[in-house]
Amino acid sequence: AYWDWDEWRNHVARLGFLPEYNSPNYTSVQAHGLAIMLDCEADSDFHREVLSVLRHLLTSLVLDYHEVIGLPTGAASRGIVGRRGRSGIDDLMYYLGIGPEPKGGCKHWLGVAIGPGDILPCGLNLSLPRTTCVNSHGHFRRNYLSEDFALGSTHGRAHWTEHTVPFLLAYRTSRERCT
Fold first, then answer.
1. Under 8 Å CB-to-CB from 131, ≥6 apart: which residues?
2. Are strands 71-72 and 130-136 parallel, antiparallel or unpaired?
3. Alpha helix (H) residue ranges in 19-110
4. What residues have CB less than 8 Å from 160, skipping those under 6 apart?
5. Looking at the predicted structure, is the pLDDT value of residue 82 above 60?
6. Which of 12, 147, 150, 161 has a CA 20 to 30 Å removed from the CA of 140?
7. What is the average per-residue pLDDT within 35-48?
8. 165: which DSSP letter?
9. What's this model's pTM, rounded to 2 decimal places?
10. By mean pLDDT, which of 40-44, 93-97, 106-110 is the weakest?
11. If DSSP codes are grouped into helix, strand and coil, which group holds residue 76?
């Protein structure tokens, strides 16, 4: 497990960004993988480092989650589902106390409890409008979240993942699909 962790961490460092960023499906898979590592027997330094990465991942999700629209927003490494209450991110937002319980209940069990205490201070007490920016080694993402819509874009190395959604517009509506 230690070798796998080092390999994953080095891959992300070489690439300069998390390849599966802001993805409705794969982000919850990453959170699940990190949670499983927290549940295994390992030394405290390993657990501390994994927990730090998990908290950064969760906080990143919270920063791009639009409370009014009820969706993760911003450019993503994979296509946005665009339906409220239907992705793994919806489960994570519910566990963190940010979003409502997903339609049909939560489908992702992490194996360890997460909650509001796992959000870093920069992800607390958020208000609209706000802008989030990520800039790392040639990969840049920006997301503007207003009262009624969110518009996110990315450029740079993001195309390396080959599944990039380079921009996303999401807006407030009573319909289930709003992207």
1. 142, 143, 144, 145
2. unpaired
3. 26-39, 44-64, 88-95
4. 15, 19
5. no
6. 147
7. 92
8. B
9. 0.87
10. 106-110
11. strand
